[in-house]
């Protein structure tokens, strides 16, 4: 697995604050979002890479481990032999930092990583583990495998079919529509030796929307004349574009509600979408437009 400098991916320094990392992610995610780059495979790969970097650097524990080990691209000393290795590595995603662990646990799918249940603290003997998974000693080692699967906000909203790879075995699964960040999926009996695969779903942030409870928030640009006189604008939603009627005299920052355009609920209903109006003026004016704006300014002065 080729080493990736996640700081470089997001264009931030290693000392960047959480706010700087989030801001950089949102800017890049918006630039490379599939909706804006349809058919562009390079942009799609860049979008996934940006999401992968943010998933690590936005998590304090993962960032700490990445800063300690990830920037060298090396497995910590003593972790690559057949002895014991100990320590509390809860939350450590071996697939992101080591080809050795990737081969052992079969990190699979396009966005995610897996770790053995014994990584949750304590110690495990690597010889026994390899023997149980398929080594020459033939010892059976049954354990659960835990991992994370990253999905976009759009995929979490509509649901998505995923394929992951665990110890060389391809497993198909369905992420249900309306899945929340942190939701857990169990694939019973699919781990090496007959254990379970336990997946935690991580929903990537979307530069277009914020999710607050059951409601979504977005911002749309509204030309100043439309805000003044009233009119309609196109609003993106996770279910497709809709038309919003802007009342006359609307000011910048005004929030309008589109009922039933928010996040799916278990009872089959949906939350609301709140739209913040961002007033815009043209940078380049025609002579006629300039004259009209001049007259308007004189009338209001």
Q: Please summarize the sheet with the most strands.
A: 4 strands, mixed
Low-confidence segments, given as residue ranges, are: 71-110, 115-139
Instruction: Report how far apart the termini are.
Output: 65 Å
Hey, roughly how much beta strand do the residues contain? 25-35%
What is the N-to-C succession of helices and strands?
A: HHHHEHEEHEHEEEEEEHEEEEH
- SS content category: alpha+beta
Features:
301 residues, HSP40/DNAj peptide-binding domain, elongated, alpha+beta, four-stranded mixed beta sheet, Helix Hairpins, 3 domains, 14 strands
Task: Explain how this protein is built.
The chain has 301 residues and is of the alpha+beta class. It has three domains: 1-61, DnaJ domain (Helix Hairpins); 75-203, Sandwich (HSP40/DNAj peptide-binding domain); 210-300, Urease metallochaperone UreE, N-terminal domain (HSP40/DNAj peptide-binding domain), CATH 2.60.260.20. It is built from nine helices and 14 strands. The chain has helices spanning 6-10, 18-32, 41-57, 60-70, 99-105, 126-133, 153-158, 224-229, 287-300, and strands at 84-86, 112-116, 123-125, 145-151, 160-166, 169-175, 184-187, 197-203, 210-212, 215-223, 231-235, 242-246, 255-258, 273-280. The strands form five sheets. Strands 2-4-8-7 form a four-stranded mixed beta sheet. Strands 9-10-14-13 form a four-stranded mixed beta sheet. Helix 2 runs antiparallel to helix 3. The radius of gyration is 25 Å and the shape is elongated.
């Amino acid at each position: 697995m080729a080493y990736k400098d996640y700081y470089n991916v997001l264009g931030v320094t290693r000392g960047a604050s959480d706010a700087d990392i989030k801001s950089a992610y949102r800017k890049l995610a918006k630039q490379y979002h599939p909706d804006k780059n349809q058919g562009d495979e390079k942009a799609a790969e860049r979008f996934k890479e940006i999401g992968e970097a943010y998933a690590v650097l936005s998590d304090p524990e993962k960032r700490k481990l990445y800063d300690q080990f990830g920037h060298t691209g090396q497995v910590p000393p003593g972790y690559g032999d057949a002895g014991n290795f100990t320590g509390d590595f809860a939350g450590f995603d071996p697939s992101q930092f080591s080809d050795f662990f990737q081969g052992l646990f079969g990190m699979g799918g396009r966005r995610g990583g897996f770790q053995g249940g014994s990584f949750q603290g304590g110690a495990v003997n690597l010889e026994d583990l390899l023997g149980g998974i398929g080594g020459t000693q033939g010892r059976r080692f049954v354990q659960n495998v835990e991992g994370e699967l990253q999905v976009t906000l759009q995929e979490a909203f509509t649901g998505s079919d995923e394929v992951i790879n665990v110890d060389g075995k391809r497993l198909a699964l369905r992420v249900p529509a309306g899945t929340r960040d942190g939701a857990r999926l169990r694939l019973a009996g699919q781990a090496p030796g007959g254990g379970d695969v336990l997946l935690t779903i991580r929903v990537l942030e979307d530069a277009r929307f914020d999710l607050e409870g059951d409601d979504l928030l977005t911002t749309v640009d509204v030309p100043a004349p439309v805000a003044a006189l009233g009119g309609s604008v196109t609003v993106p939603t996770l279910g497709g574009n809709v038309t919003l009627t802007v009342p006359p005299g609307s000011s910048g920052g005004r929030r309008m509600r589109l009922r039933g355009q928010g996040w799916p609920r278990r009872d089959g209903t949906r939350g609301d979408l709140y739209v913040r109006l961002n007033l815009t003026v043209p940078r380049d004016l025609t002579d006629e437009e300039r004259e009209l704006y001049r007259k308007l300014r004189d009338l209001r002065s």
